[in-house]
Amino acid sequence: MSNITLAQANTIIEAAFAKGAEMGLKPLSVAVLDSGGHLIAFQRSDNSSFLRHEIASGKAYGALAVGAGSRWLNAQAETRPHFLEGLSSVSGGKIVAVPGGVLVKDKIGAIVGAVGISGDTSDNDEICGIHGIEAAGMTADGG
Questions:
Q1: What does the alpha-carbon distance between residue 90 and residue 34 come to, in Å, rounded to a whole number?
Q2: pLDDT by residue (tens digit) across 42-53?
Q3: Which Gene3D superfamilies does this one have (predicted)?
Q4: Is residue 1 part of a domain?
């Protein structure tokens, strides 16, 4: 299984920050994980609050855990709360089930990692994640 490279992760982060600035968003934090859930790169904008690393990583981690963007997890939280309670328990509380966790797929559709963004509304976080992934030449799946 291939993974996102550090260069691709940095491209994703740079493009996500640029999109956030273009949209006039609050300070963003961006985590890029490989397909095994390991951190490749993380950056936070100036004045980003202190738990943003955990939130961004949790969005990406949750997407990888279920093979779907965190928007899907958010829908499951509404319709199947016991599923999310169990998932949270077995993950040690690492999963954040709100939009902003976006799977990254390669040219053949294989999952190569995930991006998690936190700082503005979940919908805006997701928009920036998708933009960053596409700017790196990969396919985004927000769920």
A1: 20
A2: 999 999 999 999
A3: Haem-degrading domain (3.30.450.150)
A4: no
